[in-house]
Each structure stands twice: as structure tokens, then as C-alpha cells.
Design goal:
5 helices, mainly alpha, c-terminal domain of poly(a) binding protein, 75% helix, 114 residues
Length: 114
């Protein structure tokens, strides 16, 4: 039986990794070993970033709400507490969008909560 060398498979695997490393600096997009390491780390950072994005946006919405509610003479924590007791089922994302795009409607919501 004839021995088959694995050159084509190796080249295919290397090309796949180097394609993923396109745009990386210096040897990280040229040399396979360095590129493989860089691609692995990039994947980890991307995974963490997808989890982090959810936290960051929630934090942004809370900051926006706090600023909008303080202009109307209330604090964020008191507003959220009053909102839950009045059973207004709007989440922070929607409330912050209303506060930015429709300040008059947001003012009415705050007045209703007070």
C-alpha cells in the first residue's frame, strides 16, 4: 500500500487559520504558529465581548434613565421602585429610548409613577 502524506490537509488547515488572522500585525498574520495563537485569543475575546455587551448596554440604559429622571426631580432607584409598585411593565431599554426620543411622553410616565 502506498503511503499518503498529509500535505494537502495541513496546507488547508494552515490557510484556514491564516485567513482568520488576516489584518493582524506583524508575524501574527504570516506565521502559522503565531497566527494560531492569535486567532485562539481573538476568539476568547470575542466570546467575552458578546457577554460583556449585554452588561454594557444595561449600564448605559440605567445611566440615561437616571439623568432623565433627575431632571424631573426623582432618582433612578425611587423611579424603578415606584414603577414596579404601579405595575408599569416597561424595561430599561424601552424607557431610555422614550426618554431620549419622546421627552413629553416620558414626563407623563414619571408623573404617573409619582
Amino acid at each position: 500500500m502506498v503511503r499518503i502524506k498529509g500535505g494537502t490537509n495541513t496546507r488547508r488547515r494552515h490557510k484556514k487559520v491564516l485567513k482568520l488572522a488576516k489584518g493582524f500585525w506583524m508575524t501574527r498574520h504570516k506565521q502559522f504558529k503565531k497566527a494560531k495563537e492569535a486567532v485562539l485569543h481573538a476568539g476568547e475575546y470575542a466570546f467575552m465581548g458578546r457577554k460583556r455587551k449585554k452588561r454594557d448596554f444595561r449600564q448605559l440604559w440605567i445611566t440615561r434613565l437616571n439623568a432623565a429622571v433627575r431632571e424631573l426631580g426623582m432618582t433612578y432607584s425611587k423611579f424603578i421602585k415606584a414603577q414596579t409598585t404601579k405595575k408599569i411593565a416597561l424595561d430599561r431599554k424601552v424607557l431610555s429610548q422614550i426618554a431620549i426620543d419622546y421627552p413629553e411622553a416620558f414626563k407623563k410616565i414619571v408623573e404617573h409613577v409619582k
